[in-house]
């Protein structure tokens, strides 16, 4: 047995807790999780059945933590987890799982399969079986501070461009500001309209906010690849930056896994509670509208639909806010079939978008999104996750579909009440 | 050994041994599961009453899921029929209640024998439907191994032998009764060590998932 496989098995062992054991004990091989998985539905290949993706971890559980398994293992009649097996499972645990959590909604015995896959990836990292693309992204996140290699210098350059375009000043390192706004690399590099939109919302709400030059990246490659040590360090950077500026809130931007990693996993990774609260940008905007701190002006007239990002809605618990906001901003908002927490993933969550080995398979899954979109007949698709946005744009282009993708925060900012619309309303 | 001697043994010491293995096995399996523990969640809950959501899921997951469009309705129906059927047969057939009364000191009202007879027939048919589905469905077939087929066999074996005994089929009543009780004992001693363990562990698996989602304000 090689050293790396020993490390891998040890990591699997460490990850197995009472919930995992209860899940393996309960599974009756009913196969319902397959019918909810976008990779199985798109390909029809039974190897993509979610519970099958956990076979290496199940074997470790059985051989280490059950009576018969231990006995069979001692007698040398059980099948061990090998390097070859984990090699084969790389496709199943990384390429064909976006951690979207749809399977966790259907399992009759209530197994939370995403919880299991997230943990199984720890064993894959420890045994050296993580995909190259994710390793590289994680390396950039650890060394440069961003999985896409965005440096503070390039971030500040983008900011000054936005300042020029909007005529607004973007605050940096304001001690004691109420809100610290984080960004995802994709927002900085591709969708920087988000920055101007947020500045506009903050200005109208008259709240104090800031960027931090020590911590601006919200994404967490450590979570996606499955390395709690690295994930903890990435969270710690945000916590240090936020606590240094003594902010009350940290805003998680329009990025799905950034929210779940900071809001839900973060305190567990660093082993303590934060001295600030984490709020998702949609929660904040909804709250500001409800408090009357910002007001909507005109509405978007053309037909719109909304793609619910898995990590924000189904896994994050920000379920009602996107609906409230879509109804407030759009005159003609049509929900997709399976909307809300039942939505189908964009195909690129959970690190799949960073893993070029998975590109071909990922694009196959888009046919589900295509069907959902064709049913609505929209020309504009709204979402609130930069990764979803990127993946949706790629899928639409591949399928030659003429649909524009926009971010919900920007849409709201665009339709805020201005002095002119305020006058119009009065007349 | 005569049939009567056999019957005396399976009803007496045999049953005691089987129940002993069943109880001890189940207890050990639950303890080895719970001993693994669960780390305290340090994130700030959106909903502090998350335990309630755990219990909620324990019950709501009895309902069929929204997304299983490729599963034929008959397979769904059959799995409900055989679970409910098993429950009614085990706990509401007069002779079974008598056994429970001897074991735990109290009984409860029974369902009429003709009704249990019909339920048994339906349960057997349903179990063959789920077996057919396990073999013919590509996902289930792919996932299935010894544990799945063995579990199916030890579940249907007591139902079939009970049905035969009741209707005096195949073998004389007492002989069939011996086989019936032995088949129940096989089920009892196997349950903790097969996937049939889900009969107990499902409460935990549903609770953990429901509770974790509830903390995040997600009603599963």
Report on this model:
The complex is a heterodimer of chains A (427) and B (220). With 427 residues, chain A is α/β, with parallel strands linked by helices. Chain A has 3 domains: 5-130, Fumarate Reductase Iron-sulfur Protein, Chain B, domain 2; 147-288, Rossmann fold (3-Layer(aba) Sandwich), CATH 3.40.50; 292-414, Rossmann fold. Chain A has helices at 3-15, 18-26, 32-36, 38-43, 55-65, 67-74, 83-95, 103-106, 113-126, 132-143, 152-166, 185-189, 193-205, 221-225, 228-245, 256-270, 281-290, 320-329, 359-376, 386-398, 408-414, 419-426; strands at residues 179-181, 209-210, 249-252, 277-280, 300-307, 330-333, 380-383, 404-407. In chain A, strands 2-1-3-4 form a 4-stranded parallel sheet. Chain A is globular and about 80 Å long. Chain B has one domain: Fumarate Reductase Cytochrome B subunit, CATH 1.20.950.20. Chain B is built from 9 helices and no strands. The longest helix of chain B has 32 residues, at 3-34. Chain B is globular and about 65 Å long. Classes of the chains: A alpha/beta (427), B mainly alpha (220). At the A-B interface, α2, α3, α8 and α16 of A face α1, α6 and α9 of B.
Question: Which short descriptors sum up this protein?
Answer:
A: 427 residues; alpha/beta; Fumarate Reductase Iron-sulfur Protein, Chain B, domain 2; Rossmann fold; 3 domains; four-stranded parallel beta sheet; globular; B: 220 residues; mainly alpha; Fumarate Reductase Cytochrome B subunit
How large is the radius of gyration of chain B?
A: 20 Å
Proportion of β residues of chain A? 5-15%
Instruction: Please give the alpha-carbon distance between the first and last residues of chain A.
Output: 80 Å
Helix percent of chain B reads over 70%
